[in-house]
Amino acid sequence: MQIRPATGQDLDVFVDTLHAAFGLFPETPVDGGGLWWSALETDRCLLASTADGRPVGTAATYSFELTLPGGAVVPAGGLTAVGVLPTHRRQGVLSALMRQHLADLRARGESVAVLLSSEAPIYGRFGYGPATYTSKLTLTRGKAALAVPRARGEAPAPETGSVEVVRRDGCGDLLEEVYDRYRRTQPGALSRPHRWWELRAGQPPLSPAPRYIAVHRDADGAPDGYASYAVEAGTLTVDEIIATDDAVFTALVRYVLGHDLVSEVVLRHVPADHPLRWQLADFRAAEVSGVTDWLWVRLLDVSGALTARGWSVDGELVLDVDDPFLGEQGRYLLTVRDGKADCAPTDRAPDLSLDIRDLGSLYLGGTAPSTLVRAGHVTAHRPGAAALADALFRTERAPHCLHWF
What start and end residues bound the annotated signal peptide (predicted)? Predict the structure, then answer.
């Protein structure tokens, strides 16, 4: 078996092999693009072939930027389009593709790898762990009145700005600019490269699917948020709300809740810690469902990744990290002072022992170390180690990712 990079002439073969792996047929091209694979970076696609040259497996990588706690933005390789023909499963094809994928990321200097997992059991063995979570919120329109409380003794904050409704076809540049500002402030968010918007690759509001866009503008008329939505059979479904602050998010929710001839509003992606439910006059008017993992993270350079993110408290922690897939093990002294970390090899006794996949889950602050200790994934070697790790890895804002790839 051979693993090789794809070329520009291989795109059709790559797409056909990927679809055959899942028993699907490629979509018919449409005017204006919109095929989800049209944003694939051919030079970052891998083909697995038999000795006689027959393609049997695929994997591809997108070049993203990932926003970390503290506001740093780092390159991240996004794994996608992974498939192996049914005739060649359980023959080491996927493992070979994954080894080459991770080697290519390291060669590019990318210390963080990310993916969205179609099946949760698969990618833990390759060192990925779930790192962000999302949920669906269904609001019964007749009951879901917003009644934002004000602090004791204070007048309600005046609403500023305005909302206008446009069609998706006429506002691509605006959406791209607003999303880019948002993702730079949200831990766990990924960039959406310009080619995604240009080729309309992915899910709404990138794809050509018809959508209305509620654009929020600040008091000076500058766009600072949007909601992408469609209405069908009395249900208004919001693909995503992108807002630069909570007040803009609330204004956009107020808009969709005020839509005529709608019995319920569904918000497809809401962060776990979002305050929206507390802003409702009736807390039970919002039903949470579809709580699931979203972005999975794998670290390829433990020291580099840990020093790149920001930290909220000072402290020292010795981490013994096992990477069974790559056959690596390291012990690191993590020292945090004034929001910055130093991470260096050490021979000191460990405070925590953990698998590289679990460190990926902890990395963005979306999973507490003590949770993984209680689950039996992480071993704490001294009293108080888990509590210290909780304090160190905790973030002011829960990580969240909206981007589908």
Answer: none
